[in-house]
Amino acid sequence: MTTTDGNDFRDSSDFDILRELDTKFVYDQLPSIMFVCALLVMGLIGNTLAFLVYRKFSPSSTRTYILAISAVDLSTNLISYPTSLVEMSFHYTFVHAWQCSLIRFVTSAQIIASALILVAVALDRHRRVCQSLKKQQTPTDALRAVVICAIVAGVVSIPYGVMTGNATFTIHAYNMTGIMCSLDDRYEGSLFHVLYQSLTGVGMFTSLAIMCVSYTRIACHVRQHRKRMAAVDQASACHSASSGNTYTVATTLSGFHKVGASVSDEKESSHIQDQRLHSTSCPPCGGSNLSVSAHVATSEQSDLLLQSYHQQDNSPPKPGHLESPNKSMTPRLQLFALKKLKKKKTDGGGQHGQHGDKAKQMSSRTTLIMFLLTAIFIVSFMPYWATVSVRVVIGIDIHTLPLWLLNLHAIAVQSFFISSSVNALVYACCSAKFREECRHLCSCWQKRQ
């Protein structure tokens, strides 16, 4: 029997046998079905909590992206997981081609939308960390990016939905033909299918490259920043330990203006340039020559440098000197400003410095969360890619596999669902505020009960 019409298929005498095979297939794949059910429950609870909790946070581009990711993951839990279980339950008798097309279209759109949103997140984090002085995304910009990602995902998934439908296969033990939801027989080996697979493959590797390059550049930038701050700490500790030395400071503001201008010219790095500093009182820190570089805000540099002039020279500043950037500033003045900046940030009364440190910690933690979400998304697809590649190259018939290998295959091809179920665990592990809000939400729910 080779007919693919649903009514004729169900009216045939072989249909009852195929339904029995469906039942047997469900029992054989019980471990993989339990795996999908566990992900379903975990994803429903986690993504619902994530969506409700992050709705309470103050508006930001990061909040918008996390809400979008949670919404897409929640739709995956509500739509793609149950339909995947339906496919397993009707492995031999999935006769409605339009249902298969709709299922595959929705699943493909959800996966592509998640990938594109993670690409937008990577670009946003790269701009915030590596290009902090440039204009950053607003919540409206992030929402616009999410809408574009959703539209592109839907458009790209339309051809895949068209190509999927009734895929027939032969059951050699019964000399019968079954129908499952997969690539339609009409498009098997067609040029259209090959072109679509090639284009989506290029898009996938391009997205992967953008995410990897963005987070690699972020890691390099953070590493360089830590090296600069370590050099500042070393210089400050070295010269704080020295005693009996009085440093004279330049008494003209022209040199200060020159350094201030050079700092403002470097908008992206915003750090004091490395300069050689002569000192004979601190040999453990590098002898007579010491190079200091600090990554500090331009406004703080200017305020502290100007304050250092006022403290070292009681004469009022002369406006005329600010327009003359021809004389250089003494290196000791830079060191004085760095020491004042460090003292400002470490003093207990420096609320502004504490607020800045807290903001930096939150930004670093947010970048870590987004990196982990991206890494989990990529890793969760690896078993799927490996299994599909092996099946295409070798031409494996899954119906001839032993039970343990059949379940391993079923779990591998469903592995991309993992990322949509465990994202809430990342928020819980990396964000104390998320955990606190979850406890508050659960306590409120218990009081209502």
Automatic annotation (TrEMBL):
InterPro entries xrefs: GPCR_Rhodpsn, GPCR_Rhodpsn_7TM
PROSITE patterns linked to this entry: G_PROTEIN_RECEP_F1_1 (PS00237), G_PROTEIN_RECEP_F1_2 (PS50262)
Membrane topology: Multi-pass membrane protein
SUPFAM superfamilies the record matches: Family A G protein-coupled receptor-like (SSF81321)
TM helices/strands, residue ranges: 33-53, 65-82, 102-123, 143-162, 194-218, 368-386, 406-430
Pfam families referenced in this protein's UniProt entry, alphabetically: 7tm_1
Entry-linked Gene3D superfamilies: Rhodopsin 7-helix transmembrane proteins
Stated family: Belongs to the G-protein coupled receptor 1 family.
Record's protein name: G-protein coupled receptors family 1 profile domain-containing protein
Organism placement in taxonomy: Eukaryota, Metazoa, Spiralia, Lophotrochozoa, Mollusca
